[in-house]
Each structure stands twice: as structure tokens, then as C-alpha cells.
């Protein structure tokens, strides 16, 4: 990499104003599987129920692996399937080495892996390193100060208030689901830290036994044949150490909200994004690489969940001397504020903030939804479903789909009485909708029939979303045109196009509402994606964006709203785009 190659993206930003070329992408033709992968997130509780209890399970997933194969996805990552009291729906693990009974057994898990291997699908598990359930044996032993477990969690005596003489929590730190991050345990006469719910106790990463135990978790599931891990809540792994008086310092007030129970009330600089955490991710990478070296097979991947400033997130990739996570998730598109709506300029900013900041030689990735956010079709507008699916599949690198995005599924509405998510249950009837994550966790839509084909039981754990009769696999497979069919064409194009796998990238805001991406590779046809995200029809001049384009482009894939004919030629200089129209075109 020559210094000028790194400079080009920044220079083109300044000089050309709008168009930006990612000159750092190397036109290498040998990509490892994960670099161009189509990842698919399954929320097991809501994907497919095999036994009629209204709760999705492993046998349900196994029965639908053919569907994933048919979609063309490379790897599925499953949200946690481990033994759990389900306070945070599996993100509170009571046994990291066993399966949650309502999801199945170890035998069911092995059958799932076997079937996936037969179909050449990879399975990735959720690794939840920051905390365990308070029902975990480790926690019970730690409460009792059993030998070897005394410091498994972050324990502290708290402070005595000089005025009242009463004991108070060690610091003002707040948990993610409202209220103090400290909980008093009568039996041990100490507080423990929980960055999430009270029942999710933070493991103490300053204890080498904990570090080793969690690497054991990774190795255990690698031996069971998984292709890697999505690592949960990584930026909160380490907190600041106690000061010279043995006290934890308070966080400063952020000024962002007056709500003193809301975690955003504080700056959270002491309990997030610590340097030690980055090193821990590098250590996990070594576990992955060692496993492959010893047992062979394909690369085992690390995907890192990180909502953090880019300067921190990018460090997870590693640097010149050390390998880190294969893919720290890119949440730039997911975090576009819903109030701003998606626009050509917000997309440009999100793309710039990954491609221009990513260390050289690493692989980008694109995420538009997950089980913690409102569904993409609701956040970006149902009319932008195809445009957003096109965007994340045409941009370079790996792409991630949250279950239902291929169907254009929208948020379910959940009453206060039906609310399940602790983030909402810790608030009240009037405000829970601000906090709830239930709307994106409603059951997957397989058919227009009872329970959308998800369950044969009398009741599902969350009610169905209203649009299940139209946005489902059965209807969208039978339709001549559908979001599902467009999604499948996109995945197929990614697989067959050398340009999409290896080409360089140029993109720009064409006018207020239109965004364009061009991928090119010498010796292969270029691919152009253009979308009108606005509510009015427009005509764009792609020649102004890129004068090397031919006079006409062939239409390959069009959004459901488009009336243009696939296979026809369209003029580069005067391309008309209806409101919400999105196109993928080619120079061949
Ligand atoms: C992030 C997960 O995605 C979320 O669902 C969970 O509540 C927290 N981490 C805590 O594990
Ligand atoms: Mg079930």
C-alpha cells in the first residue's frame, strides 16, 4: 500500500464534493469465504416452532435450513440458544455449555450442525462474554466466596454516606435497562456490577481464570463444529479499575437527557470502550486461528457487536502486527436516527464513515437490522425495502440480513400487557414503546395461515405482526414479483459477479434524494446501483457521476415499485427514477 493510495478517498471527498472512490480496495481475486459472505441472523425464539409451544426451537431451525440454502445465504448466526432463565431472552446464560430445554437438546444441536454441513451452510453462535445469569453456578459459588470463584464477578463493598451513615452503591453507574448498575447481595454483604439487567452479572475480566473459562466456552462450541461467533456487547467487557482509595469513580453527567434512570444520563466513559477490551478480542482471534490450525477446515470467524465511536470500533480489526475480529459490525446504517429518515446524504455519511476510516486491507460489512432495533422496513420506510437490501449487497464486503428483511417484514405492535423485553418492562405503560425491542422479535412469517405457519400451538410467545398475510414466504414465493424474489436475485448476483466480489467502489449523492454506487473490475462488467429515496420522480445524469460509463446500461434487478423491464437498456445521461425506485444495472 503506497501512501497516496490511502490519501485518495479523502482527497476525492474534498475535491469533488460528492463522488467518492474507495481506492484502497485491492482487486484481489482470492477472497476467503467470510469476505463476501451473506450472513443471516436467526432469532431462534421467533424463527420456527417445531413442537407447538409457541416458542421457536432448534428443530424448527433445522427444518428450515433448506429455506436458507434457497435464499443463497452463506452463514447463519443464531442469537443465544444456551441454558437461560430468559430474563433477557438468552443473553442471561446459566450454563454456557448446554442448550436451553425449550429450544432443544445437545442432540438436536448436533443434528442442526449435521444438516447445515450437508447443505454447505455455516452456523455461527452468539458468544456472550460480558455477563452470566445470576443463576449460573459460577455466580452462586461467587456469592458464597467459594475457592476459585471469589473474584469471578465485579464485587465491591459500596460507600458509606457520611451524612446519613447508610451504605450506598460504589458509584453512580447505570445499567442499560434503567437504574443502578449495582445490586446488593445480603449473603455476601457486597454489591455486584451488572451493566445490563440485575440478573445479568458482569464477569470480572481482570481475573485470569475468567478469561480462561470464557476461552473454554469458545473452544467447546468450536469442537461442536460451529464456524465462528458473534460476540455480544463487547465494548462493556472491562471497566475502569478502582482508584488509590479502592473506590470506583463516578461517571460525568452527559447532558443528553434529564431521565436519571436512563443510561444516557451519564457519559459512560469509564465503563465502556476500554483499551483492555480490544486486546481481549485479539486473544479470542488467536483461539479461532489456533483451532483452525490444529483441526483444519475453513476459517472460523469473529464478528463483534460494537456500538462505539469509529476510532474505537476500527481497532477491533487489528493492526499491522496483530489480527483482530474478522468483522466488527458496521452499525452506521442501523444508527441513522429514525427521526432523520434515510436519505442519500445519510447513506453517504454512513458509507464514508466505514470505508474511509477502516484500516487498509480489511473487509467492510453492512448491517441494516437486528433483534435490538426496529425492523429495517419500518425504520427506513416499507417503500425503501428493496433499495436498502440492494445497497448492503452492492457495497463491498460482507452483508448481514436480520430474519424477515428479505420479506420486508415490518414491526409488530405489542401491548403493554404482552410486553416481554426487560428494556421495556423496566419502564411503564406510558413510555415502554420508546424502549421496547419486542416489535422486531415477533414470529417469522412463513405462510398466511394460523400463526403465520410459525407454530401449530394455540398462542405464540409474542403476537404476530399485522402484515403477516402479505409479507410471508408462501405469498412472496408464489408472486411474480416480491421483496423475497428481489432479495434472491441480489444474493445470486453477488455470488456470480466477480465485480461485486473483488471490484473497487465509487459512490455519490446525485441529488438530495438519489444515491449511486458503482462497482468496477478490469475485465468484468461494472455494476451500478441507483436509488431514488424521495417521494417525487426525478431524472438523473449518471454521466456526470462517472464519465467512463457507456451511454446505456442494462437493467438487471429492479425494486418492486419499478415499471422498467429487466434486460432493457436505459440511457446513462437521462435516467428517470420514480419515487422509491431502485435499480441495479450493468455495463454488459
Ligand atoms: C446485546 C444484545 O444484542 C442484546 O439483545 C442484549 O440485551 C445485550 N447485548 C445484553 O446481552
Ligand atoms: Mg418450540
TrEMBL record:
Q: Which Gene3D superfamilies does the entry link to? A: Glycosidases (3.20.20.80), Golgi alpha-mannosidase II (2.60.40.1180), Oligo-1,6-glucosidase, Domain 2 (3.90.400.10)
Enzyme class, spelled out: hydrolase
Signal peptide per UniProt: 1-19
- SMART domains listed in its UniProt record: Aamy
Q: Which UniProt keywords apply?
A: Glycoprotein, Glycosidase, Hydrolase, Signal
GO MF, one term, reads: alpha-1,4-glucosidase activity
**Alphabetical GO biological process terms:** carbohydrate metabolic process
Renumbered to this chain, the Basic and acidic residues biased-composition regions fall at 427-440
**Glycosyl hydrolase family 13 catalytic domain: residues covered:** 41-441
Pfam families linked: Alpha-amylase
The EC designation for this entry is 3.2.1.20
| Annotated InterPro entries | GH, GH13_cat_dom, Glyco_hydro_b, O16G_dom_2
Residue numbers spanned by region Disordered: 426-449
Q: Which reaction does it catalyse?
A: Hydrolysis of terminal, non-reducing (1->4)-linked alpha-D-glucose residues with release of alpha-D-glucose
Domain of life of the source: Eukaryota
Report the PANTHER family cross-referenced here. ALPHA-AMYLASE FAMILY MEMBER, MALTASE A2-RELATED
Tell me the protein family, please: Belongs to the glycosyl hydrolase 13 family.
Q: What is this protein called?
A: alpha-glucosidase
Q: Which organism is it from?
A: Drosophila mojavensis (Fruit fly)
The encoding gene: Dmoj\Mal-A7
Amino acid at each position: 500500500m503506497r501512501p497516496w493510495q490511502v490519501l485518495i478517498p479523502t482527497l476525492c471527498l474534498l475535491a469533488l464534493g460528492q463522488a467518492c472512490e474507495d481506492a484502497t480496495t485491492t482487486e484481489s481475486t482470492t477472497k476467503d469465504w467470510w469476505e463476501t459472505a451473506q450472513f443471516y441472523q436467526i432469532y431462534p425464539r421467533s424463527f420456527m416452532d417445531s413442537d407447538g409451544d409457541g416458542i421457536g426451537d432448534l428443530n424448527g431451525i433445522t427444518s428450515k435450513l433448506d429455506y436458507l440454502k434457497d435464499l443463497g445465504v452463506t452463514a447463519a448466526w443464531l442469537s443465544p440458544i444456551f441454558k437461560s432463565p430468559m430474563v433477557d431472552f438468552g443473553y442471561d446464560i446459566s450454563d454456557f455449555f448446554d442448550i436451553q430445554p425449550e429450544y432443544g437438546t445437545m442432540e438436536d444441536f448436533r443434528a442442526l450442525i449435521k444438516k447445515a454441513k450437508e447443505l454447505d451452510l455455516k452456523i455461527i453462535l452468539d458468544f456472550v462474554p460480558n455477563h452470566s445469569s445470576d443463576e449460573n453456578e459460577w455466580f452462586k459459588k461467587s456469592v458464597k466466596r467459594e475457592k476459585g470463584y471469589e473474584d469471578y464477578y465485579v464485587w465491591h463493598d459500596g460507600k458509606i454516606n457520611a451524612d446519613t451513615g447508610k451504605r450506598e452503591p460504589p458509584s453512580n453507574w447505570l445499567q442499560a435497562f434503567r437504574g443502578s448498575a449495582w445490586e446488593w447481595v445480603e449473603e455476601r454483604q457486597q454489591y455486584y456490577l451488572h451493566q445490563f439487567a440485575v440478573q445479568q452479572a458482569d464477569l470480572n475480566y481482570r481475573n485470569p481464570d475468567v478469561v480462561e473459562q470464557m476461552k473454554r466456552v469458545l473452544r467447546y462450541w468450536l469442537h461442536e463444529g460451529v464456524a465462528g461467533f458473534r460476540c455480544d456487547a463487547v465494548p462493556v467487557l472491562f471497566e475502569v479499575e478502582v482508584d488509590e482509595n479502592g473506590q470506583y469513580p463516578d461517571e460525568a453527567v452527559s447532558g443528553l437527557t434529564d431521565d436519571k434512570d436512563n443510561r444516557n444520563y451519564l457519559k459512560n466513559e469509564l465503563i465502556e470502550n476500554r483499551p483492555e477490551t480490544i486486546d481481549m478480542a485479539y486473544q479470542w482471534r488467536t483461539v479461532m486461528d489456533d483451532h483452525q490450525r490444529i483441526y483444519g477446515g475453513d476459517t472460523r470467524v469473529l464478528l463483534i457487536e460494537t456500538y462505539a465511536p469509529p476510532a474505537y470500533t476500527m481497532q477491533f480489526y487489528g493492526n499491522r502486527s496483530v489480527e483482530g475480529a474478522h468483522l466488527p459490525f458496521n452499525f452506521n446504517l442501523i444508527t441513522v436516527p429514525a427521526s432523520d429518515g434515510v436519505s442519500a446524504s445519510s447513506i453517504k455519511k454512513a458509507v464514508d464513515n466505514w470505508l474511509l476510516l477502516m484500516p487498509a486491507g480489511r473487509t467492510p460489512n453492512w448491517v441494516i437490522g437486528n433483534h435490538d432495533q426496529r425492523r429495517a422496513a419500518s425504520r427506513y420506510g416499507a417503500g425503501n425495502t428493496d433499495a436498502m437490501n440492494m445497497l448492503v449487497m452492492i457495497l463491498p464486503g460482507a452483508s448481514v440480513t436480520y430474519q424477515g428483511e428479505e420479506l420486508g417484514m415490518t414491526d409488530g405492535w405489542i401491548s403493554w400487557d404482552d410486553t416481554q423485553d426487560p428494556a421495556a418492562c423496566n419502564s411503564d405503560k406510558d413510555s415502554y414503546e420508546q424502549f421496547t425491542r419486542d416489535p422486531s422479535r415477533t414470529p417469522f412469517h412463513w405462510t398466511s395461515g394460523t400463526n403465520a405457519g410459525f407454530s401449530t400451538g394455540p398462542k405464540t410467545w409474542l403476537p404476530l405482526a399485522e402484515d403477516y398475510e402479505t409479507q410471508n414466504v408462501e405469498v412472496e414465493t408464489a408472486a411474480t414479483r416480491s421483496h423475497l424474489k428481489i432479495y434472491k436475485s441480489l444474493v445470486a448476483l453477488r455470488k456470480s459477479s466477480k465485480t461485486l466480489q473483488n471490484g473497487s467502489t465509487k459512490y455519490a449523492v446525485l441529488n438530495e434524494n438519489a444515491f449511486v454506487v458503482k462497482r468496477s473490475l478490469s475485465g468484468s462488467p461494472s455494476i451500478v446501483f441507483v436509488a431514488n429515496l424521495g417521494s417525487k420522480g426525478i431524472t438523473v445524469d449518471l454521466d456526470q457521476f462517472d464519465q467512463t460509463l457507456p451511454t446505456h446500461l442494462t437493467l438487471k434487478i429492479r425494486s418492486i415499485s419499478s415499471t422498467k423491464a429487466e434486460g432493457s437498456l436505459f440511457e446513462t445521461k437521462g435516467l428517470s427514477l420514480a419515487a422509491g425506485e431502485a435499480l441495479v444495472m450493468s455495463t454488459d
